[in-house]
Amino acid sequence: MTALKENVLQQLQKRLEYCYESNRRATFKKWPFKDTKKCNASKLAEAGFIFTGTRVDPDSVTCFFCNKSLDCWDENDDPWFEHQKHAPTCAFAKMDKPEEAFTVTEFTEIRNQFIEKFLKTELKKSIDQVNEHFDDLVHLISVMK
Ligand SMILES: [Zn+2]
């Protein structure tokens, strides 16, 4: 296996862990609102988000499925509602229910869609890199003439 393939598969494996709500929940160690608030860590994880906050941006979260990042949360925000509002095409947000309410088929479909989307994005990145190298080579040849 090439190093690139190995790297992509490692990344995929890591990202696939976030298909599980409990793994997303575990990323919320520094969430600013209490569990009693509507916008709490469990609700955010349930709605597909992982914590991606930093010191500068302490309430940033990102959807594991569509990669949409949201911040500037209010403690009374509804994570599902905000996810659907800001990422209306996200297949996970459209599920609109906690993981425990998923059927095995639904869970498998979401997981497979995620894998397909991830691999397509990686493939596009590789193609873009090849195109960039190609353009560099064409430029180099034209300079050397
Ligand atoms: Zn999403």
Account of the protein in words:
The protein is mainly alpha-helical and 145 residues long. It has 6 helices and 3 strands. It has helices spanning 3-16, 21-25, 41-46, 79-86, 91-95, 104-144, and strands at residues 49-51, 61-63, 69-70. It has a 3-stranded antiparallel beta sheet with strand order 1-2-3. The radius of gyration is 19 Å and the shape is elongated. The protein starts with a helix and ends with a helix. 17% of the residues are buried. Zinc ion binds at residues 48, 63, 65-66, 68, 83, 87, 90, 92-93.
The dominant shape is elongated
Helix count? 6
Taken together, the total number of domains comes to 1
> Helical proportion?
40-55%
Radius of gyration: 19 Å
- How many β-strand stretches? 3
CATH hierarchy, class = Mainly Alpha
- CATH-wise, what's the superfamily? Inhibitor Of Apoptosis Protein (2mihbC-IAP-1), Chain A
Q: What is the CA-CA span between the terminal residues?
A: 38 Å
Entry keywords:
145 residues, mainly alpha, Inhibitor Of Apoptosis Protein (2mihbC-IAP-1), Chain A, 3-stranded antiparallel β-sheet, 6 helices, 3 strands, elongated, binds zinc ion
Produce a short descriptive summary.
Pfam families: BIR (PF00653). The chain contains 6 helices and 3 strands; from the N terminus they run αααβββααα.
